């Protein structure tokens, strides 16, 4: 009978926090832990002896034992905390700095704490060296103060001094080693996290700036495209008007002077000149024009004539009669006033004088197209 063989995946390795520390560091941490536990056991044994001493009732002895045990634990804990604080101050690593005073170890965010640690460490060492002669009298005073907790007398004083020294030293070692082993790694990890976060923020800001620049570029391209389309529409409309004006004007206007069809008996190529008063603005009325090259023939020019009122209290009404060069198919045009003005679009070969009659012939206007400011030179010379 054939048997099927299955491969089982190996168990995933579980995270082991102890693997982050060297064997020597693990041994030191275990030693400190044993010292702390040993001190607590010592205090327990010292105070339990009161339970069997004396002739008072057992319940009073039990209460007294708990009281002295609590007081001794409080004294030991206070000494442990003081020693741990000093050990912490001594154990904070100094930041590496370059020639410019900049941190190189990735712990620059704790520079203030490091400076305080340096100052307090120097103060403690200095004061300790100058007051070392007062150390033992001070210990005797402390031992005498707390001796009652340990039974009083010389024995209680010695037990109090021993407890104070033991837990101060143990606390110092615990704080110092914890700072050097755990706190250093915590700072390094925090520094790495901060740098990673700063990098992500920098990348996010760069991406945001790129996206904003791309959006602005797209808006500019869109605006340029819209402007180009608008310009194309304007050019198309303008060309359409020019073509309509050309169809309306006729191809004969304005032919060169050498053309026999144009030469008259009096040899006057501008018959309207001087016949309409010689002024373009009279009696609150104005005749103005604009001339530019056409887009379909360099020999032809687009002319826009406008008749309007310059007096708001006297609007232009009725009809306006416009006199063009006689070479047009319709040299005389009668146009109705629309919205207070008259517009006429034409195509011309060269300049000539335009005459206008409005207000039922009471107002006459005259404009020489060759004298319009900005008129093309080629148009003015013809």
Polypeptide structure, described:
The chain has 382 residues and is an alpha+beta fold. Helices cover 52% and strands 13% of the residues. Strand 7 and strand 8 form a beta hairpin. The longest helix has 97 residues, at 153-249. It starts with 22 loop residues before the first helix and ends with a helix. Mean pLDDT is 75; it is low at 1-15, 106-110 and 255-267.
Tell me the total number of β-strands: 8
Mean pLDDT: 75
Low-confidence stretches: 1-15, 106-110, 255-267
Strand order, largest beta sheet: 1-2-3-6
Structural class assignment: alpha+beta
Strand content: 5-15%
How would a textbook summarize the main sheet? 4 strands, antiparallel
Distance between the amino and carboxyl termini: 117 Å
Number of helices: 6
Q: Helix coverage percent of residues?
A: 40-55%
Inertia-based shape? rod-shaped
Quaternary organization: single chain
Radius of gyration: 55 Å
Order of helices and strands: HHHHHEEEEEEEEH
